[in-house]
Design a protein that fits this description.
Chain lengths: 216, 216
DNA sequence: TGACAAATTAACCTTTTGGTACATTCTGTT
DNA sequence: AACAGAATGTACCAAAAGGTTAATTTGTCA
């Protein structure tokens, strides 16, 4: 239903990377919006400049596409954290910065969190297919290990802090804030999801995390 | 493939409540297992003693069935909390008990948490259809308000504690522990999901929540 | 006991949906 | 310029999936 009266009837450029990126971007939105099973291949191609054929050409099938979408989501999430340069700050400050940043970053990128939530609904089966995702995610842990070592050495951190537990705690806060917003705000109002409410939650997260690691 | 050589060829008892309960129980499992869109009506009836028609007879359509399943899940979750009798304990102890109980209860009932997560993927649209769920959930907040009032009056709670924020915090911990287990344990190992790990997380939750409310 | 409503079964239907076959165009290489 | 292989568009398909129709059985009450 579009264009070209005078133009040539058929003409297209080859652009594999562009097509792949386009599909991936659209698929990210559609999967995040409707879940894996709820997402429709036809809906994805409709929003794309390409044709259905290309999805199967480049990604194999719906699961393959979802796996790539998920991979890209994890990559961007961890990439953000990686740029924080936590080594430059005193341990307690660095931890505070990490927690606050994670809170904001997840809030600014709800699609990625939704994709991870969706992946959990499906028992992580696509994640298991990925080679690259586990590597990405080990970075955050080694970063926290380093941070804890410094804090313990310095005497500001408890001796028994657990980097993994720390990551778990921060994730729990920041992920829940996105993943359960719909039901929570419907049941209890959206006071906590206004800008002011979110600032309070972020402050709460930071102080809780700091309290949890601080030497007594 | 069952029964009756010598028995009458066809014979069934009318049992509306039994049929409804059967369908609801099976649907709970199937929806929790596969999500809303991923769940198959045929799979549900297959595991049921009834026939497909009954789902539509009693629940209208797939969404109607899911709405009832979700309603039942919320009812059981809140029913547990309601039986805690928090008034009988000093505020700090009551809060600790609530947090620890919620942690355990969610852990023992992952299906309900999964259903809520699934509902969030679908933007809470089934929840909005329910009359009863919001009532159920207001109980926990009024309970916490009462608790906070006592704590503040007694001087053990900070003056500015927010019951809703408290509930949010406890929920975040306990829900994340279930809803993101698949991806988290795949990426970071399942140390935190062993019995010992879970006990540590529960202890962390309790101490964090207490620290957050305690007057300084 | 007979009639009427409620409950239930079994077979069927329509649309949707993920996926494919096949033809066509583009582009780098010789 | 011609060939080969990669990239893309179009039309199509078979199966799955939600939902429905129609007929049968069971319970109830006058």
């Amino acid at each position: 239903m579009k264009r070209n009266e005078g133009e040539r009837k058929s003409s297209w450029k080859q652009d594999p990377e562009g097509v792949k990126a386009d599909i991936l971007a659209v698929a990210t939105s559609v999967f995040a919006e409707s879940g894996f099973s709820g997402a429709r291949i036809d809906e994805i191609i409709r929003r794309t400049k390409s044709s259905k054929r290309m999805i199967y050409y480049y990604f194999g099938d719906k699961s393959g596409l979802y796996a790539k979408v998920l991979e890209a989501a994890y990559a961007r999430l961890r990439k953000g954290e990686g740029q924080l340069d936590l080594q430059a700050l005193p341990p307690l400050d660095a931890l505070a910065k990490l927690a606050a940043f994670t809170f904001d970053f997840h809030r600014e990128n709800p699609e990625y969190i939704r994709l991870i939530t969706i992946e959990n609904i499906h028992h992580g089966k696509h994640l298991k297919q990925s080679e690259t995702i586990p590597k990405l995610n080990s970075q955050i842990i080694t970063g926290l290990e380093e941070l804890c070592r410094r804090g313990i050495g310095e005497g500001t951190f408890r001796e028994d802090v657990d980097p993994l537990e720390l990551h778990w705690t921060i994730s729990a806060f920041c992920v829940f804030n996105i993943s359960n917003r719909a039901t929570f705000s419907h049941l209890y109002g959206d006071d906590l999801f206004t800008d002011a409410g979110q600032e309070r939650l972020r402050a709460r997260l930071v102080s809780m995390v700091l309290d949890a690691v601080r030497a007594s």
